[in-house]
Amino acid sequence: MELDLTGEHAPAAYKILASLVTPRPIAWVTTVDPEGRPNTAPFSFFNVFGTRPPVVVFAPGDKEPGVPKDTARNIRATGEFVVNLVDRGVFAPMVQSAATLPHGADELAGSGLSYAGSSAVKAPRVAEAPAALECREHSTLRIGQNRLVVGEVLRVWARDGLFDPATLHLDVGAFQPIGRMASPDWYCHTGDLFEHERPD
Length: 200
Prior knowledge:
The protein has a single domain, classed as Pnp Oxidase, Chain A (Roll). It is built from 3 helices and 13 strands; from the N terminus they run αββββββαβαββββββ. Strand 10 and strand 11 form a beta hairpin. With 200 residues, the chain is mainly beta. The relative contact order is 0.19. The strands form 4 sheets. It has a 7-stranded antiparallel sheet with strand order 2-1-7-10-11-4-3, covered by helices on one side. A two-stranded antiparallel sheet has the order 5-6. It is globular, with a radius of gyration of 17 Å.
């Protein structure tokens, strides 16, 4: 089966690619607007793309053609954001925060979760998230109607017990993030892990 994303199947590109390129990590991004109001929204077009400097990229789409989502508007205004990672404990509020709300509304209101202060950026982090990456916007690229936000990671917050303080090795049993699977409503757990050494 051949699918032409430059022609016949172009309108279905999101459905096709978002269903095949899986699992994807979820960036649950917190920002603040110029008035200091927090915004929290999930994005699954996300990953880490380097370490010198540490770089993450995610793609916040538009609410409608030409109208950026609050996350993109806030980053353009402040140059800062936090990527909160998602596990079972924060999964349901993460999904709920994808709902369309009026500008300035707090997506965590009524969720039972709370914000915690960041140390290098003004945007808060989700206190209950297993880990959070404080980021400064490096650049935002426009490719057609795609917006790719490139951020430099300044600080990492991790739940106690995730990393060995001496070796900084991750306890893989203690960190089981949720992954994004087929569009529109599929996710996966990451508890079924295996180790296989790579050659030198």
